[in-house]
Design goal:
By secondary structure, the protein is an alpha+beta fold. It contains ten helices and seven strands. Helix 3 runs parallel beside helix 4, helix 5 runs antiparallel to helix 6 and helix 6 runs antiparallel to helix 8.
């Protein structure tokens, strides 16, 4: 039975109750010989029986509407609390008057506490796994990754840079009189430029992703500063000093690296903005570019990188939101609940 059906039933029952009460009062206070007398006697030019039914119907309607409005508000309040819980926000509990609503509020508190404990457990497990990964990481793998990155940087990357400079000088100093040839030279210059971005994205992947002895804030600022020296892109960032668990830092840094790599390879962006802050007991990582954008739903189904970032966010009890509009850019935002004092970590 839904709210409207309950409202109609309440109105009908109230109507019957008020009718019986009014008629009972009438028979006790003013005895009548038959029910027909109720319709023969008039009050304010209306049959008394009709007046009784009208008052009872009005009272029943008022009671039914009030009853339905009250319960709709209570149910809406519960729905809002569940929605806030699903978003990972803190719930402000009221002191309900009815015992049944108090029981529901208590159950919501229990569910919220359970989610909080699960987030705490996820973060602890992530920390343990990160520590185990660092301990079990073979030195030869790290050295090989460094060697490949160094050789690519010293050979292919330098050659691409030289080729880019040469093509730029040719196009500026000796513009071709043939329009078709000029367009082809410009296209070659753009292809070399894109290859440089691809190479930098590849070098970003080859680097060891562990933060080693750095904090997340220090590692993020170092990474972004290095990009400003190597990438022809306007990069700005807001990074607050944060003290987080090792596992949480590791996963957020990996997400940051993956998102920047995707921007370099696919976005064709002119600006990149990164924000890493703590607000309302949440760690917020936001990466925004003004690139070409893409279809998020199609990319989620086919992109391993996006799936990997989403799994990393879920692994530490957080959420990942991705918004991208064609020719307007992409915005990635990760929110992770984290209470350093008197909260999850105690």
């Amino acid at each position: 039975m839904n709210i409207w059906q309950r409202q109609v039933l309440t109105a009908v029952v109230s109507f019957l109750v008020f009718s019986i009460v009014l008629l009972g009062f009438t028979f006790m206070a003013f005895p009548v010989a038959s029910l027909g007398d109720l319709w023969s006697r008039k009050v304010i030019d209306l049959p008394y029986g009709f007046l009784v039914l009208t008052i009872a119907a009005t009272a029943g309607l008022v009671v039914g509407v009030s009853h339905g409005w009250y319960w709709r508000n209570r149910i809406h309040s519960i729905e809002m609390k569940l929605d806030e819980m699903a978003k990972g926000n803190e719930i402000v509990y009221e002191d309900p008057e009815l015992f049944e609503l108090k029981q529901i509020e208590n159950k919501l508190k229990q569910i919220e506490d359970k989610f909080t404990k699960q987030a705490e457990l996820s973060q602890k497990l992530a920390t343990e796994r990160a520590e185990e990964r660092e301990k079990s990481l073979q030195e030869v793998v790290v050295q090989e990754r460094n060697r490949l990155a160094r050789e690519l940087h010293d050979s292919v990357s330098q050659q691409l840079f030289a080729a880019s400079m040469m093509m730029s000088a040719i196009n500026e100093a000796q513009p071709s009189e043939d329009e078709g040839t000029a367009k082809q030279l410009k296209m070659v210059e753009k292809m070399i430029h894109q290859s440089q971005l691809e190479m930098r994205a590849l070098l970003l992947h080859l680097r060891p992703v562990a933060l080693k002895d750095k904090s997340l804030s220090e590692g993020a600022e170092e990474l972004l500063y290095e990009l400003t020296q190597k990438v022809p892109m306007e990069i700005e960032w807001t990074v607050e000093p944060l003290e987080l668990d090792k596992g949480l830092e590791d996963q957020l840094f990996r997400i940051l690296q993956e998102s920047i790599s995707n921007t370099l390879r696919h976005a064709k962006a002119a600006t990149l903005s990164v924000m890493l802050i703590e607000r309302d007991n949440k760690i917020i990582l936001r990466v925004v570019d003004d690139g070409v954008g893409f279809n998020v739903e199609e990319a989620k189904a086919s992109s391993y990188g996006l799936q990997n970032m989403q799994e990393r966010a879920y692994e530490v009890g957080g959420t990942l939101k991705l918004v991208s509009l064609k020719n307007q850019g992409t915005r990635l935002e990760v929110k992770v609940p984290y209470r350093q004092k008197g909260g999850i970590n105690e």
